């Protein structure tokens, strides 16, 4: 795999429409729906529309969270399988079962040359994903995860 231009400083991927626009709009909708509910209660107006508005905004926030978490879980499964296969090809052994998915996801950036040694170190010392990424000398790009 090519090293590309990805490194520790620029490896995080953000989708502006999702991470900035949708999240701000969802948060704004919840805040506005709470304000509307409070105003309805204070004025003695019918609160049912305000409650419905609040419930819809809560549902949209839950959908926002699920839309992000389900694909990440699928990507994590794929990363675990890919890195387990890579480790097996390089060492004829499966990854250490003590490695967490966060550690494995971080290890995927390590070059083939340093991958087996870094896997052992990460499992033995229970390195955090961030510590793993910082210890990689030869970065291997992953441009497919969002």
Automatic annotation (TrEMBL):
Keywords: Membrane, Transmembrane, Transmembrane helix. The chain crosses the membrane at residues 20-41, 47-67. The keyword Transmembrane applies. It comes from the Bacteria. This is ABC transporter permease. It comes from Paenibacillus germinis. The lineage of its organism: Bacteria, Bacillati, Bacillota, Bacilli, Bacillales.
């Amino acid at each position: 795999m090519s090293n590309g231009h990805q490194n520790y400083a620029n490896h995080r991927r953000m989708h502006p429409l999702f991470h900035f626009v949708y999240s701000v709009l969802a948060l704004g909708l919840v805040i506005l729906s709470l304000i509307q509910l409070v105003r309805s209660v204070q004025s003695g107006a019918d609160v049912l529309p305000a409650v419905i508005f609040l419930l819809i905004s809560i549902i949209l926030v839950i959908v926002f969270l699920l839309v992000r978490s389900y694909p990440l879980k699928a990507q994590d499964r794929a990363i675990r399988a890919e890195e387990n296969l890579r480790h097996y090809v390089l060492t004829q052994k499966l990854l250490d079962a003590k490695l967490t998915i966060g550690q494995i996801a971080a290890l995927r950036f390590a070059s083939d040359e340093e991958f087996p040694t870094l896997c052992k170190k990460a499992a033995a010392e229970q390195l955090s994903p961030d510590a793993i990424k910082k210890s990689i000398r030869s970065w291997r790009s992953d441009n497919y995860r969002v």
